[in-house]
């Protein structure tokens, strides 16, 4: 997650909480100098990741000695969580739109094969079908899962 601070963050920190520990890892730390009426000051923009792990005596040294491995795991953990959250929202929107696509709601009880085929073609090319496909395509968006644009539901 992108963060901003007036204090330069450490590359990592370990905060103990009983049997667990919060491991905070930072990368891409960039100073940004700003000038205002009050003077010049520096802020730091960086990527911050966290992991909750069992506490142990050697944890600080383990993170220090294997920082890149910990960072890789933290990045993957964040990616997996964000992906799951986006997919859950997408699935909820698909479920909400299911009722728009139920055949028994759309078609009369007696319909000819030709009319049925024509109606299916119409449905497949409808705005609702395009909306539902756009929802299914969300994981293929560039920037997924960090920068996702959900489509607007048609009226």
Notes on the protein architecture:
With 155 residues, the chain is α+β, with helices and mostly antiparallel strands. Helix content is 42%, strand content 28%. The protein has helices spanning 59-65, 67-98, 103-106, 113-124, 127-136; strands at 2-5, 12-17, 20-36, 39-54. A hairpin with a 2-residue loop joins strand 2 (12-17) and strand 3. Helix 2 (67-98) packs antiparallel against helix 5. The protein is elongated. It starts with a strand and ends in a 19-residue tail after the last helix. The relative contact order is 0.12.
Defining key terms:
elongated; 4-stranded antiparallel beta sheet; 155 residues; alpha+beta
Q: Helicity range of the residues?
A: 40-55%
| Number of separate strands | 4
Low-pLDDT runs: none
Strand order of the largest sheet: 1-4-3-2
**Bulk shape:** elongated
- Radius of gyration, rounded? 25 Å
Count of runs of 4 or more consecutive helical residues? 5
Strand content: 25-35%
Gap between N and C termini, in Å? 35 Å
Mind describing the biggest β-sheet? 4 strands, antiparallel
Overall average pLDDT: 91
- Topology as H/E string? EEEEHHHHH
Question: What class would the helix/strand composition place it in?
Answer: alpha+beta
């Amino acid at each position: 997650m992108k963060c901003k601070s007036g204090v330069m963050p450490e590359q990592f920190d370990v905060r103990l909480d009983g049997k667990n520990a919060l491991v905070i890892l930072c990368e891409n730390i960039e100073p940004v100098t700003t000038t205002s009426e009050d003077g010049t000051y520096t802020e730091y923009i960086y990527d911050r990741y966290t992991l909750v792990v069992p506490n142990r005596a050697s944890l600080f040294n383990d993170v220090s000695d294997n920082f890149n491995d910990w960072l890789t795991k933290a990045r993957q953990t964040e990616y997996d969580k964000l992906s799951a959250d986006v997919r859950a929202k997408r699935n909820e929107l698909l479920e909400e739109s299911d009722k728009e696509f139920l055949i028994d709601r759309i078609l009369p009880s007696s319909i000819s094969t030709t009319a049925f085929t024509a109606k299916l073609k119409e449905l497949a090319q409808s705005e609702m079908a395009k909306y539902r496909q756009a929802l299914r395509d969300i994981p293929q968006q560039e920037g997924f899962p960090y920068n996702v644009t959900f489509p607007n539901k048609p009226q």
